[in-house]
Design a protein that fits this description.
- With about 475 residues, the protein is an alpha+beta fold.
- The chain folds into 4 domains: about 100 residues, Trypsin-like serine proteases (Thrombin, subunit H, Beta Barrel); about 110 residues, Thrombin, subunit H (Beta Barrel); about 90 residues, Pdz3 Domain, CATH 2.30.42.10; about 80 residues, Pdz3 Domain (Roll).
- It contains 12 helices and 28 strands.
- The strands form 5 sheets. Strands 5-4-1-2-3-7-6 form a 7-stranded antiparallel sheet. Strands 9-10-11-14-13-12 form a 6-stranded antiparallel barrel. Strands 16, 17, 18, 19, 20 and 21 form a 6-stranded antiparallel sheet that branches.
- A hairpin with a 4-residue loop joins strand 6 and strand 7.
- The longest helix is centred in the first third of the chain and has 23 residues.
- It is flat, with a radius of gyration of 25 Å.
Length: about 475
Amino acid sequence: MVARYTQFLLALCIFVSTAVCARGLPELTDLIEQNSPAVVKINTVERSQASRNAIPPQYQQDIPDIFRHLLEPPQGQRRPVASMGSGFIVSEDGYVVTNNHVVEGADEVTVTLTDRREYEAKVIGTDSRSDLALLKVEARGLPTVRWGDSEKIKVGEWVVAIGSPFGLDYSASAGIVSAMGRSIPNESRENYVPFIQTDVAINPGNSGGPLFNMNGEVVGINSQIYTRSGGSIGLSFAIPASLAQDVVAQLKEKGRVDRGWLGVGIQDVDRKLATAMGLGKPAGALVGQIEAGSPAADAGILVGDIITRFGDHKIVTHGDLPHVVGQIAPGTEVPVVLMREGKERKLKVRVGSLPGEDGGQQQTSGPASTDVGGRLGLVVDDIPDNLKQRLGVESGVLVKQVVPGKAGANAGLRGGDIIAQLGFDAVDTLQDYTKIVKKLPKGELLPIRFFRGGQPTFRTIQIDED
């Protein structure tokens, strides 16, 4: 009798354990089989920056510009540099989404499907602030993915990534959502993406690939990993689909992204500040600086105010504010709740337009026309007065377009940069720029001074062909 009872308990334990495991570990084969055809491998070739990439990117920024040419091989010995990433098809007529850093600076972009079809891709537009890019291939009837609602994702939810880590085509990995709304500033210290953190195994080559929920919908675009070894250690970050859809729609429509702008410098609120400011607990974004003539100044926001709500969104940490403001269409009037001298205040602010880092230009891959951008491959214009005030510059010319493969691109210039000096001559106006460029010597390294995000930078530029 005891033996039978023991066997019964053993069988019951096995049944319960099996049921728990079945409920805890989802079946992923159908999801992966159905969605893999719409995931693509992206290969790029970069000729103009080949010599720079001979040095690991993490060390390039530490090399003074005056010495960079000594580390570059002669012109005739430069070799194309190949790179790779992942992406996914969002329309049957060939629109493909990937990361900006996958295609940035590329002279050739190739998209490969699971059935080994290959297409040359055109870069419709890129957005460095969200690290997103939209490509287009000439094809019809392509397999596509479905967008999901990233606002409904919960911590602990299962997610699946498909991509090409280390060039291993169409690999799948799974994990759970570890956290939501992670603030990770980019190289320019801007913070416009509330990243989804997961423990999915993401490695180099996965960048730009989709992150699926259990309904087979794309809820994120894999963008970054935190690592000390170069490989996955269980900390990966994806761009939320809700933000990506808006960026993709703008890139498709106009080749650029317009973001909301408030014009404040902010910091977090700690426990002591919360007590001093009359808050029950640390929360909100403390305004430490206000730009003259900005939407914040016009709305009556003051230094020392703590913004606790912007529109329909609570501002829990200071990193929440740029996430929210950046996604609001310029010109929109938004209610704001803030704390001032221990009392709650309400006001309205008309959101401005963030100066575009990429200058609003539409970028294209492939050989550049020699007629565009002149000797430097730069399309420039005078700086609008309102932009001068925002960036704190008084003179110069605004870079609106950078032609791949020419002198400006080789010097690392981007749309939105403001050129203040060429060679040893100051550039105050568009007329100055035109005169100076005409007399620049060919084949000599010359200094160039420009502003990016309000910060002055010196580099070198060389004209190799007229």
